[in-house]
Design goal:
Pfam families: F-box-like (PF12937)
Helix content: 25-40%
Domain F-box: 2-49
Number of strands: 10
Protein name: F-box domain-containing protein
Structural class: alpha/beta
Distance between the termini: 75 Å
Largest sheet: 6 strands, parallel
Shape: globular
Number of helices: 11
InterPro entries: F-box-like_dom_sf, F-box_dom
């Protein structure tokens, strides 16, 4: 009797399915027959399911609806849609966000999405495995409440602030008290509006992190270097915990950010300074100017005392 794809051993089919990277194609495999359905479903639910579009979200929603038991098996989910209809993502949220979830990543627009997430995550439900939640395009009181809700399990968070971001700091419980997130080890701080003083107000109460990725677009330059150095020495809270630091920015004459962070984190073992086009969820791309040789030398001098250091940038052509 000849061997066909229908008669292949289960172990071999699983290997074949594991090579398939396209989530949609795996869903198609699951529709071939009952045996393939079971095997393809096991592969789908064992991996990080990434949804970048409305179409992909609808496919995954119908995949979950086909069998309610599947929702309890979703452990790793990433949502990162552009500007689009978020209805299927909210519907997925109601099905897939269970105490079984361990990693919920990505970035997503819309306060309504996070309001629903907060509503689903009632205080009476224990989410003991959840290490991450998606970043919001804008920080808000709702997102602040989510950080408080999951403060006992979160290990990695990303906070976004940009020009349209408006919130009342009096209503924020967590932003300036991130040390309450007991297991937090990695923080990404992505901002178009923060100055160094506001960044310090956040970071001074976040001394448990080991990895920091910070993108500060400062609106004003430091004009009084002596006064700035006095502020660093007298008002900056130092932390010996941080080991890896990545600094991203796009504007000129902001190298004092490096001075501030290198002083604040004296025990860092690796530092990356990046001056490259940044892709943000709400902007999608940005333009940065090349760095001239003298500026490159200046930055390298500031970071050369760190064990592992690197500068990633576009180099200006010689005049």
């Amino acid at each position: 009797m000849p061997t066909t794809t229908y008669s292949l051993p289960s172990e071999l089919l699983i290997e074949i399915f594991n090579y398939e990277k396209c989530f949609r194609q795996l869903v198609q495999y699951s529709l071939v027959c009952k045996r393939w359905n079971k095997l393809a479903d096991s592969v789908i639910l064992s991996r990080n399911i990434t949804l970048y579009s409305e179409d992909a979200a609808w496919i995954f929603y119908h995949f979950l609806v086909s069998s309610p038991e599947k929702s309890k098996s979703v452990k790793y989910l990433t949502v990162d849609p552009p500007h689009c209809n978020l209805e299927p993502f909210r519907m997925i949220l109601k099905l897939a966000f269970t105490p079984c979830m361990e990693s919920f990543e990505g970035e997503i627009e819309g306060t309504r999405f996070f309001n629903e997430l907060l509503l689903i995550a009632g205080e009476e439900i224990e989410y003991g495995r959840l290490r991450t939640i998606p970043a919001s395009w804008n920080y808000s009181t709702t997102y602040d409440s989510l950080l408080h809700r999951f403060k006992s399990t979160l290990e990695c968070i990303k906070l976004n602030f940009h020009e349209s971001c408006r919130y009342n700091t009096k209503n924020l419980t967590m932003l300036y008290h991130l040390n309450q997130i007991e297991n937090l080890t990695s923080l990404t701080l992505n901002s178009d509006v923060h100055d160094i003083l506001k960044a310090e107000n956040i970071l001074k109460n976040c001394n448990q992190i080991k990895d920091l990725d910070i993108n500060l677009s400062i609106g004003t330059n430091i004009t009084n270097v002596e006064q700035f150095n006095v502020w660093i020495q007298e008002d900056v809270t130092r932390s010996n915990t941080l080991r890896s630091l990545k600094i991203r920015f796009s504007k000129d004459r902001q190298w004092h950010i490096v001075d501030y962070l290198v002083y604040k984190y004296p025990k860092i073992e690796k530092i990356v300074v990046e001056r490259l086009p940044v892709v943000d969820s709400w902007i999608r791309s940005s333009i940065v100017l090349p760095m001239d040789i003298q500026t490159i030398k200046t930055v390298l001098e500031k970071i050369s005392n760190v064990k592992i250091y690197q500068l990633e940038c576009i180099v200006a052509a010689r005049q």
